[in-house]
Structures are given as structure tokens and as C-alpha cells.
Amino acid sequence: MKKLLKNTEWTVLIVSLLLFAIGAVALFSATQSTEYGEFKKQIQWFLISMPFLFLAYSIDYNVIARFSTVIYIIMVGLLIGVLFTKPINGATSWFQIGDVGIQPSELAKVVVVLFISFLISKLQVRGRKEINRFWKLLTAFIFMAIPIFLIIKQPDYGTAMAYVFAMVFILFISGIDKKYIIFTIVLMAVLVPVVYNKLPQHALKRIEVFLNPESDPRGDGYNIIQSKLAIGAGQLVGMGIFQGNQTQLGFLHPKTTDFIFSVIGEEFGFIATAAILVLYVVLITKIVYIAKTAKDNIGSYIAVGIGGIFFFHMLENIGMTIGLLPITGIPLPFVSYGGSSLVTNFICIGLLLNISSRRQKSYL
User: Fold this and answer.
1) Which residues fall within 8 angstroms of residue 300, CB to CB, at 6 or more apart?
2) In sequence order, what are the residues at sequence separation of 6 or more whose Cβ sits closer than 8 angstroms to the Cβ of residue 184?
3) Exposed, middle or buried by CB within 10 Å (0-12, 13-18, 19+), for 273?
4) Could you give the CA distance from residue 315 to residue 292 in angstroms, rounded to a whole number?
5) In Å, how far are 142, 228, 251, 308 from 312, measured between CA atoms?
6) Predicted confidence (pLDDT) per residue in 126-167, tens digit
7) ∠ CA 211-261-314, rounded to 5°
8) Closest Cα partner for 305 from 195, 186, 163, 201?
9) Where are the alpha helices (DSSP H) in 10-156?
10) DSSP single-letter state for residue 100
11) Is the bond preceding residue 254 a cis peptide, omega within 30 degrees?
């Protein structure tokens, strides 16, 4: 136990708690008009997350991975089942249980990363280069494509991209041949125009608004314009808690999830937003270090897959709030409001602590 505690990369836990604390303060300010309803729920979800984090840390990740096949099948079943639920904001992404909404696509992230990591490690039983056998690589792609396809059907393109990033990060360190990487890049370049023409109208509208928000300032371009106004108004130190015009007067929407970064920028300024970016850089860097120093391939794959998900969420959420990327409804990890997302993120942190603790020696 002493060895496990000594080897554990506690920095990832400290950073995640700091990000949660910043998000909690922002939620406290953003929800004063609703008697702090979402803030209170977020605290409850945080407390619910802690036992899951402890379990993910305390049980050997190789043991957890052995059960990932069964859990993967269950999650695929849930992703199919959610397609038959009543749409919320145009998407069938939630199981509504009383006042609580459960989003399977969020919970499935960690399951898919575990299963794909376990699968690739088994496909490489005779050596890392075995992943370059066409049928083995195709097998990995098929099992990743199933949840991605089901999530696109909801439709939730942003979350689907998080899965893609996880897969890319895992394959990149798995020993995949460069020819497959080059082929994929060329294929994507060819397919982008085709996929673009096949996108549904609402997705095309988001891209058009991203390119020119002022073309529809009172419609689809409204949210991004208000977001940039909020962040710009914060300047260096912000307007102060409860003092943001866009935040408190209801111009930002949804301010507790998609645009929580805008709330922080307006009320706490550039210093706070820069601190968030630094914390994410530290988190991603430590995750890469954990992947590099893991005792086995499966540990490296799980860590880097989690890193891919966090990296995409950070990049997309911050990018869309400042107008550099299209709006996709992706939450900011540990900061945005959301129960399913928060539980999943802390399970991921537990797994990272788990992998780091079981290294052969202390790297601190």
C-alpha cells in the first residue's frame, strides 16, 4: 500500500479538484437567479463521484479491463435503448429518471477506452507490430465504430468526436504503421466534402454560423456573439462575482454547461481563464507521463485514451466559446454542470491514479 501511494501521480487529482472548484464558483454565480439549483446538484454529483473514483483507483486496472467486454456490451445496449427515448433539445441522448437525466454516451467513454485498450493489448499478444495486421486493425475499428455510430444517430456529433480522438491517441502509441496514418489522412481529406454535403441542416447551420456569426445575430449566431462579448467584457480581472452582464441578465445560454467558460471569462477575467488553460496543460502533460511510465501496454493505452478525451473536450469547449471552433454542445471537463460527465471524468481520474500507482518504481 505504501508503494502504491508513493507511486501515485497525485497531481492529476489535485488539478481536477482545482478545476472543479473553479467551476463550482462559476456555477454558484450563474445560478443565483434559480436559487442555486444546478450548483447544489453539481455538489451532489461531486459527492456521488468520489466513491467511484476510489473504486477506480483501488481495484487493479487489469482486473477492471477483464470485465470491460461485458460492460461494453451493456453500454452498447444502453446506447441503442436511448435512441427510443423522448428527444430533449432535439437529441435522444438521455434516460430521464425522475428529475435526473443519465447520459449513456458520457458514461460509455470510459468503458469504450477500457475495452479498446484491452482488445488491442490482446491483439498484440505476439508483439506490438501485430496491430498492423489488417484484420486485427479492422477488428479494433469495428468495435470503436459501433458506439460512435449509435451516438451520431442521437445525434451528438461532438461526443462522437471525443471517441474518435481517444481511438486516434491509442492507435498512435500502439505501434501502428505510418502507412495507415498516411492513408487515413488522405481518406479524410477525400471524404470531408462528401460528409459535409450529407450533414443534417442543423449541423450545416452551425458551421455557417461559425464562419460568419453576424449572418444571423438574433438566431443561430446569437450564442457565440454573446459568448465573445462576455469574455471580452471581463478584461484582466473580470467584472466580479454576480456582476457579469451577459451572465446575470440571461444573455448567455446555456451558461452552466456549454458556456461556463464564458461566465468565468466575464466575471473573473483573463487571469482565471488563463489559469484554467494552464491547469489543463498540466493535466494533459501528466497523463502523457503516466502513459509513458505505465508498467504495461494496456495501462499506456487506457491513460492516453483518457488524455485524448480530455484534450478534445478542452479544445472544443474553449474553442467554441471564443469563436475558433463550431458550437457542438461539448462540456468543459470538471467545470461545466453535468452529473454523467462529472462522474465519468472522476472515474477517469481514478483510473489514471490506478495506472500510475502500479508502476514498477516511483517516478516522482
Assistant:
1) 173, 291, 292, 294
2) none
3) buried
4) 22
5) 22, 21, 26, 6
6) 887 888 888 998 999 999 999 999 999 988 888 999 999 999
7) 75
8) 163
9) 11-30, 37-58, 61-66, 68-81, 104-123, 134-152
10) E
11) yes
